[in-house]
């Protein structure tokens, strides 16, 4: 595994989640799961992030915010949709103000279903995202665009 | 001969300081994790981070950041090289202040809210740390009659005997210099920043990597300044520096919510009570020592 895979920094954004998945994300940072073992840091800053973790379905109010955050993350970047709402819109998908899952606004690389997700599933999803991140970096490197 | 020694010192610092600084940062993160009952990242994690950042897309809020962060890195490295070549302590302190000015300019250049607040608080940090560093230079001059590190190192009696107050004041400012506190500016790797890292909020990729490497240089520089107090006794010096760094990590984990206002108050009190009184006493009894 090359260096980008050893140091994935996360940006977590709550689109319109009920906070269930968000609490599980925070649980993954606690001593029990300790994701810093993998060099993962929760940055809270798009400029520093590699992996964009989004929870909740996207609604008309925040789709611009989501797009904006995505655009601010420098390449290579990977998006992980956490929870069933982020993956497909979940039970809210037919609501008048809901656009649907995260993939209706930005490209999603890894889907982690669950309501709410279990920290183990979440960590597995992020580890899968690290693999995608590696591939993207290799492609960008071969094009000489980094 | 002296020139060769000076150049060797500077070159060794320029090459080894980032390696040692990065390693210290790694050990720091592991120790912090253990204190929080976590396993923590690998010891080499800071190097993986830098390597990752180096291979990110070059995105700027303002392209001038590139010049300012390079200036910050070069000046910090220059300041440390001066110290390790036995140069003038005053010049070391002033170059360090200039380096931080570049970092502050980089943060202002982004023209973003978090960066701007971060830059303002970094300015306050410089305001708090500089008096102690200048007192340190003055203190060494009063007991050795020279600002040159090469002369200070020749002293057989460790300066700590005359300058315990200044040393403690420097220890107090270490928490700020290592970017552990205050938490509403700290750019450390802890998950407890308030300003999404303030000064570096808008920096990404290589510019962020440069700031990180500059920080490693600065860590070694500040630890070397602490070591100067034990110039006559290097073994004791290294032991004290290691203990001080460990205490710093412990304090950071015990008091993770120190705000900038508290930092200003406590460090100014420490500077005045410990540093200024120490220098005043040396000044009064100066005849005895000289």
Quick structural overview:
The complex is a heterodimer of chains A (146) and B (290). Chain A is α/β, with parallel strands linked by helices and 146 residues long.
Characterize the overall form of chain A: globular
Computed structural class of chain A: alpha/beta
Total number of beta strands of chain A:
7
Spatial order of the strands forming the largest sheet of chain A: 2-1-3-5-7
Total helical elements of chain A: 5
Ranges of chain A where pLDDT stays below 50 over 5 or more residues in a row are none
Going by CATH, the architecture of chain A would be 3-Layer(aba) Sandwich
How is the biggest beta sheet of chain A arranged?
Answer: 5 strands, parallel
What fraction strand of chain B? under 5%
State the separation between the terminal residues of chain A, measured CA to CA.
Answer: 18 Å
Cα end-to-end separation of chain B: 29 Å
Structural Rg of chain B: 19 Å
Commentary on this structure:
The complex is a heterodimer of chains A (146) and B (290). Chain A is of the alpha/beta class and 146 residues long. Chain A has a single domain (3-134), classed as Rossmann fold, CATH 3.40.50. Helix content of chain A is 37%, strand content 18%. Chain A has helices at residues 3-6, 20-29, 63-72, 84-88, 119-143, and strands at residues 9-14, 41-42, 51-55, 58-59, 78-82, 98-100, 110-112. In chain A, helix 2 packs across helix 5 (119-143). Chain A is globular, with a radius of gyration of 15 Å. The two termini of chain A are 18 Å apart. The longest helix of chain B is centred in the N-terminal third of the chain and has 34 residues, at 2-35. Chain B is globular, with a radius of gyration of 19 Å. Chain B has one domain. With 290 residues, chain B is an all-alpha fold. Chain A binds chain B through residues 3-4, 6-7, 29, 31, 34, 36-39, 41-45, 47-48, 50, 72, 74-76, 137, 140-141, 145-146, and chain B through 29, 33, 36-42, 45, 48-49, 51-53, 55-59, 61, 189, 191, 193, 196-197, 200-205, 208.
